[in-house]
Amino acid sequence: xxxxxxxxxxxxxxxxxxxxxxxxxxxxxxxxxxxxxxxxxxxxxxxxxxxxxxxxxxxxxxxxxxxxxxxxxxxxxxxxxxxxxxxxxxxxxxxxxxxxxxxxxxxxxxxxxxxxxxxxxxx
Length: 123
Hints:
By secondary structure, this protein is mostly beta strands. The chain has no helices and eleven strands. It has strands at 4-7, 10-13, 18-24, 33-39, 46-51, 58-60, 68-73, 78-83, 92-99, 112-113, 117-122. The strands form two sheets. Strands 2, 4, 5, 6, 9, 10 and 11 form a seven-stranded mixed beta sheet that branches. Strands 1-3-8-7 form a four-stranded antiparallel beta sheet, with no helix packed on it. A hairpin with a 6-residue loop joins strand 5 and strand 6 (58-60). It is globular. The N and C termini lie far apart (40 Å).
């Protein structure tokens, strides 16, 4: 069992930056690939980024590549998402999720989810 708690969301102007954190409970954090997803009102939850168990491999959605950076610290049971050059279309609730295996871009392949944190980018 893994419990995930996101923090760091807020309101920012377009072009600004925000950093999200996701703290995990339990001693098995390093057993999971960790991902970030987001969901805007009226839209499906979409993949944003994933980082492998040890942190050596990362994947990004094309829409955030070059602007967002995912990282993790297994000693702190925490995964991060640094977001730069934010755009109004980045506005969404951001969720972190833990995955044992499967399609990295499919929400169905993730085993545990946080409650989400709101990110709002004003134009």
